[in-house]
User: Which sequence fits this backbone?
């Protein structure tokens, strides 16, 4: 049998059609699948294909901002530090950047980070009010999403580096469970604490992004049925920490009322003392590990800001016994909170003490994230509330370990309840 | 100053617009750039951005086939061998797959390879005539592009594994210079010989793909001026090898006439003996290195085909002295050919002895590639010619080391001259 029925497919025509919008990426994929369907019985060119139904490259064409401690091939990683001013372009993408590229997202550049993702701020302003801090350390990614420069941007969190900037800039963010994706190619601070984060306009947008990254369902996608089981919420007041400002206390009341109106069952979070203890243990772990992970920078501490030099020196002087005690407390806390969460969907509380402080000289306080970050739990910042001056206030929703999809579903329910 | 002029950009709306074709990836990039332009003076969210003018993700939405010795995250790498039948999905992309993803291409599956990229064929047929071999070892990628299943597919070449299947299937292919991209994540045969390859419908398509991958100019793009300097061609007859069939000898005559008509200056390639020597040295290097790179498979040779078991056993028995002598001959050859190419643009010759042989039990002879592959030079197979039965005949164009862009320009000139 001789046949010339099959003709090659012109790449140049396809790219031109994609450029003009005459073909969409999804249509190109569908055309390939149909062509394979038609010719493969006789041709047998394929060993294995992506699962049918897998939405290959769901985020194809989506511009992505990347925090400048995360490697992007071809761009330098400067980490907000003069020590890295002459950094050469990275040869390879960080593993997490590869994963987002596989989902289709296209990195368009590197966003401002505080110095090595600690406290010394870069020049970034808050898109809601440019004389206020955007928070840190993932300042540029939060601000870029807040200002609509990109619909998606990556951050990382060791203390409150994703949750807080999202709250301050009025956008949504997901902190992934610790260890959920590898951190290769990320200039981190603390192996036990560093987690990946991602910013988008809303929790619904995060659900789409997470689905594209993880292959799990898009819990806010079209045709997804409304929640049947009511949310079981532990509402965390954080009162014993004594840091919430009046606007944020009001915001928590509004959140409670909105959740109740949506049919959620709410109980008060009963382990305030445990959170207080974890909030103290967290910086011990962070300093101890940072001094070791950033030993090269510790050796050149004269070129660091005082806060970062202080962290690294404190960590270098932290005893192994204190570090181990902190880790043991975290391990206990992890068990206790897992037990508590056995009967609840999520924990809900304030993402930051209040709105973004005025001034660009400091990035605000991560105190409300330390405990949850020590436990390595996934967290979503839900936007929507504002203070009397119109500045954004963020609510954080804390989920079960490695249950990002269920967490995002709960966060979307809260987001909906806040606008209805 | 307080402003809420800036609003976030809905990811869900953008993805929906991209799905419907209401927005193209290029427009999404342009919108991001414009938004950054407008807001960045006040926001300062970015440290560094992709170079203006860089076409980020030029191949966004292009379906890509990947030869099944090259890792694609999430898919198994089975290497056409029962030894790998139970391979688990790869955790990471091969470096070359990452690079193509950065250019925007979307892997849709793995294509059939001969057993460990040597001679034992898989089930793939030739799209020009399904009772003929597609060639090997990158059989599935060549056939998939030939049948229009995908506009782009990856191969690899140790002897003639890219050049020959392209010729047989009537498509274009580029073998990159040895070492041009890393081979991490590729199950290779021979560190000194393995090169990356890519298939597309035409040399013009390859020029676009190469530009997207390398960042170098698209030499066949719109607005590129016609060639001013005539091509300086060394025409390689390969007569002393005694392998060309009459149809291919005619094809070479046609090629000479077409090049002359296009204004090229042509001289006969003067080093036939050197090519003959390299053609003998090549399999010595290949066998010696393959026995070592595939030592795990050599240890289970009873589960290999006779040809592959023979190659590995022969390589294991090759003396270090013979291997070194072959490498020394290659090094001399490299110098001599570089000297020759000092006065010429390219070498042009037959890509295979003739059209694809009938039958699927063997993949044809790589003899016309061995010398050039030993030298590590980039090669383009140019399609367009046919034998009396309508079967494709391929012409190979061999370029200067690491000068893929200039080589593609010459190949496009030849391609044009063959149709005019």
Assistant:
């Amino acid at each position: 049998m001789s046949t010339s029925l099959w003709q090659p497919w012109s790449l140049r025509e396809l790219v031109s059609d994609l450029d003009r919008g005459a073909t969409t990426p999804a249509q190109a994929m569908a055309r390939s699948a149909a062509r394979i369907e038609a010719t493969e019985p006789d041709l047998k060119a394929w060993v294995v294909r992506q699962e049918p139904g897998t939405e290959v490259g769901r985020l194809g064409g989506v511009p992505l901002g990347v925090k400048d401690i995360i490697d992007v091939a071809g761009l330098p990683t400067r980490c907000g530090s003069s020590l890295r001013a002459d950094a050469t372009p990275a040869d390879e993408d960080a593993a997490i950047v590869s994963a987002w590229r596989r989902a289709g997202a296209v990195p368009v550049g590197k966003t401002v980070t505080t110095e090595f993702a600690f406290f010394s701020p870069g020049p970034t302003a808050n898109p809601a009010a440019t004389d206020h801090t955007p928070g840190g350390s993932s300042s540029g990614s939060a601000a870029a999403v807040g200002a609509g420069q990109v619909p998606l941007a990556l951050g990382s969190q060791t203390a409150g580096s994703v949750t807080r900037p999202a709250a301050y800039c009025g956008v949504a963010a997901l902190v992934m469970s610790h260890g959920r994706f590898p951190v290769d190619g990320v200039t981190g601070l603390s192996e036990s604490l560093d987690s990946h984060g991602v910013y988008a306009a809303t929790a619904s947008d995060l659900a789409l992004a997470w689905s594209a990254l993880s292959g799990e369902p898009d819990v806010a996608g079209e045709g997804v049925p409304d929640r049947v089981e009511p949310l079981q919420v532990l509402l965390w007041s954080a009162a014993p920490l004594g840091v919430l400002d009046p606007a944020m206390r009001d915001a928590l009341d509004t959140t409670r009322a909105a959740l109740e109106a949506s049919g959620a069952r709410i109980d008060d979070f009963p382990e305030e003392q445990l959170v207080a203890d974890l909030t103290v243990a967290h910086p011990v772990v962070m300093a101890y590990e940072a001094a070791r992970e950033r030993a090269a920078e510790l050796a050149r501490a004269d070129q660091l800001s005082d806060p970062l030099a202080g962290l690294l020196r404190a960590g270098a002087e932290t005893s192994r016994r204190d570090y181990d005690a902190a880790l043991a407390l975290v391990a206990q806390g992890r068990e206790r909170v897992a037990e508590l969460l056995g009967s609840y969907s999520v924990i809900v509380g304030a993402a930051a003490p209040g709105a973004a402080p005025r001034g660009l000289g400091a990035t605000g306080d991560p105190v409300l994230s330390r405990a949850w970050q020590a436990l390595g739990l996934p967290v979503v910042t839900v936007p929507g509330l504002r203070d009397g001056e119109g500045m954004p206030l963020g609510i954080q929703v804390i989920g079960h370990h490695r249950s990002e999809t269920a967490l995002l579903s709960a966060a979307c329910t809260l987001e909906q309840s806040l606008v209805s």
User: Anything to note?
Assistant: Chain A has three domains: 1-49, 63-273+319-419, 274-317.
